[in-house]
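Students often ask why inverse folding is considered easier than folding. One informal answer: many sequences map to the same fold, so there is more than one right answer. In these notes we will look at a single instance of the problem. The structure comes first.
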């Protein structure tokens, strides 16, 4: 038999109960902490247009500035991760998202809403890579594909669910209730992440 034709044995993935539990927990955290970003990205421009009656060109300017601000904040990730660690950086960014959403829910003003939206986007550019690196390091090499797929599924599910449920919440309770809901869910995810990090340190 020609040795060059032999297939290299595939690395076997050994996923025990402990590994499954960890992946499920990190997937749940990703699902929860993404909700603030999910709601703001789906309904922010609609909120400015329908609720606050802001002109379309002005909305475009706010969105453009918010997107540009993500560039310098993304560059802070290596520094923050080096000082705090990836898990703690993701936790702080998630809590920052909660603090950015709350004023949007309480103060119906385009300036407050714009600053809140900028904050959510900025913190998300920190949370996403920091949490991604943390999850990859939390599992074994052969489990990283599963962890990555589960995490992206959770993020997509968060965006889809909040977009679907958000429409009903707005219709029945208003935008403020939607933003508060997203802040509470993100806060719950932050609490879960904090408990997880604390447990791993003990």
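Output (designed amino acids):
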């Amino acid at each position: 038999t020609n040795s060059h034709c032999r297939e290299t044995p595939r690395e076997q993935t050994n996923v025990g109960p402990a590994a499954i539990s960890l992946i499920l927990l990190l997937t749940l955290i990703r699902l929860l902490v993404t909700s603030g970003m999910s709601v703001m990205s789906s309904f922010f421009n609609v909120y400015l247009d329908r609720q606050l009656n802001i002109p379309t060109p002005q909305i475009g300017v706010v969105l453009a500035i918010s997107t540009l601000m993500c560039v310098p904040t993304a560059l802070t990730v290596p520094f923050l991760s080096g000082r705090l660690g990836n898990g703690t950086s993701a936790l702080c960014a998630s809590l920052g998202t909660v603090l950015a959403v709350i004023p949007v829910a309480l103060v119906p003003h385009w300036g407050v809403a714009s600053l809140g939206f900028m904050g959510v986007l900025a913190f998300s550019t920190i949370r996403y890579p920091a949490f991604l690196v943390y999850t990859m390091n939390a599992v074994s090499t052969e489990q990283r594909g599963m962890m990555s797929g589960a995490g992206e599924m959770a993020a997509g599910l968060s965006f889809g669910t909040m977009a679907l449920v958000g429409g009903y919440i707005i219709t029945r309770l208003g935008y403020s209730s939607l933003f508060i809901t997203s802040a509470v869910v993100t806060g719950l995810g932050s609490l879960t992440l904090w408990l997880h990090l604390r447990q791993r340190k003990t």
